[in-house]
Amino acid sequence: TGEHGLEIAPVHDVMQAEWGCYGTKVGTGTFGSDWEIGTGAQNTGSMLAANCAPSTEGNDLAADLVANYTLNGFDDWFLASNYALVALIRVTDKLPGWDSYSGYLWSSTQYIDPTIYANLIGIGIYRGSYYSLKSHLHDVIPVRAF
After folding, report:
1. DSSP β-ladder status, 143-145 and 6-8
2. What is the largest CA-CA distance in the chain?
């Protein structure tokens, strides 16, 4: 049909994980990962290639969760970049279930000191752009390009 964009998984599929790779800069460039729309899959691939372990034993890593996610036969999910996640949250209140979600979602973008921090987006009462230690647990939602 020529249509393209980003698809966000249903709100009931929100998972919780560390960003991972605490103490490690993932990828190349100043912050290691890109912020721009269209770079989430590449950022997620870099996270997977770094083969990091969680800071706390038993915790999941965000990139692993999205890489292993399948919905409606699609298995090409990734973590959105910071700017893509910002664009997605602008329409989430129009999607079933997302209108009542409040929380923080990891992006695939590192921030300030890329060995320690990653960027996340707040939705609902937490609306805005934030950063957190990569070792902290926050929500994860898979996205895919079509």
Report:
1. antiparallel
2. 45
